[in-house]
Inverse folding.
């Protein structure tokens, strides 16, 4: 297991290095001047030059890239006399000095994602820390709906194969997979948040935390979670239904299922003790992929429902060319994908003893 974890950690570092390289050069060659976006329409040449010097936009692209790697690396180098834009020269984070050579000190620290261009020097880690929990709550709620209802309907569909109930479930699941999330979000918001508002008491838009009626304090509005969670869970729900049905039908044809039936076990006992666990491997794969995608932002759903999550924050950052927020968010998303994939590999070993962690 230790060897497996070390191998995964090594490949994770290589993957993150590739992601860092791609997103840095991709977003730094985009048209548009971040300095002008930050200053608005009242900028002058002196102000633009000052902002470029502060954030290092006046340096060669390769130098900016090396500075960025230095900020992200847990082991970084800091020049005593340098007044560059990296966080160490400003004392933004606590760090531990390892050793010094001439004017350069090597320190160990947490990765630094820099500061937002548009939020008055607010750290990117703070921006992500404020929005990612909202996205996580939304994603967990949506995937929970998909798992519970999807597995149940998949089992029902397999038990009633080729009957009207099975065909009805298949039509609904196919429809759920084919309808885009943004269209479902608009439709649900209009129907349940506007037309049926007096019956559902649900709003078209709203986030998890909102000001109370007196505007004095923030309070949790759980009802605002209902519509976006349902909309976000529709497509993974449809996938889980299809995978669970097909996988369960394959398991039903196995020899050990016929043996269990010959022993006199009821259909419920066969499903609970033998069939479901062995049919879950493809479902786990789908769930892990969808959950990682949901944590990636669920951009359309969050933006349409006004849910203050990471997806909405990424859209706002793209509109204002807030490069540190965009790049930091993409890095966090990549890290989440890697962690979830490792976790899924461990679950495979539990579900199927034939799967070896090598």
């Amino acid at each position: 297991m230790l060897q497996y974890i070390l191998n995964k950690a090594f490949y994770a570092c290589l993957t993150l290095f590739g992601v860092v390289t791609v997103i840095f050069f991709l977003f730094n060659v985009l048209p548009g001047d971040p300095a002008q976006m930050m200053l608005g329409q009242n900028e002058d040449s002196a102000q633009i030059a000052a902002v470029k010097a502060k954030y290092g936009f006046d340096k060669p692209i390769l130098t900016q890239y090396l500075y960025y790697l230095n900020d992200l690396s847990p082991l970084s180098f800091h020049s005593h006399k340098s007044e560059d834009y990296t966080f160490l020269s400003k004392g933004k984070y606590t760090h531990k000095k390892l050793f010094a050579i001439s004017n350069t000190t090597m320190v160990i620290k947490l990765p630094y994602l820099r500061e937002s261009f548009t939020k008055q020097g607010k750290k990117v880690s703070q921006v992500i820390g404020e929005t990612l929990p909202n996205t996580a709550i939304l994603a967990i709620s949506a995937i929970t709906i998909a798992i519970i209802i999807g597995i149940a309907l998949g089992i029902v569909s397999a038990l009633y194969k080729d009957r009207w109930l099975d065909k009805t479930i298949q039509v609904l699941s196919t429809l759920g997979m084919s309808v885009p999330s943004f269209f479902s979000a608009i439709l649900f918001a209009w129907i349940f948040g506007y037309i049926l508002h007096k019956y559902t008491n649900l709003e078209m838009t709203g986030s998890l935390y909102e000001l109370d009626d007196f505007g004095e304090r923030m309070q949790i509005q759980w009802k605002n979670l209902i519509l976006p969670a349902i909309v976000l869970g529709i497509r993974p729900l449809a996938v889980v239904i299809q995978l669970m049905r097909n996988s369960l039908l394959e398991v039903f044809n196995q020899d050990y299922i016929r043996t269990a039936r010959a022993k006199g076990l009821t259909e419920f006992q066969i499903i609970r003790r033998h069939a479901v666990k062995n049919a879950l491997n493809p479902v786990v794969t789908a769930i892990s992929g969808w959950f990682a995608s949901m944590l990636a932002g669920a951009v359309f759903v969050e933006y349409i429902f006004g849910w203050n999550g990471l997806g909405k924050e990424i859209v706002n950052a793209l509109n204002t060319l807030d490069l540190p927020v965009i790049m930091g968010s993409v890095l966090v998303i990549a890290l989440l994908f890697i962690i979830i994939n490792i976790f899924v590999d461990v679950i495979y070993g539990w579900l199927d003893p034939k799967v070896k962690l090598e």
About this structure: The CA atoms of residues 213 and 219 lie 10 Å apart. The chain has a mean pLDDT of 80. The first helix runs from residue 2 to 28. Residues 124-351 form a domain with the MetI-like fold fold (CATH 1.10.3720.10).
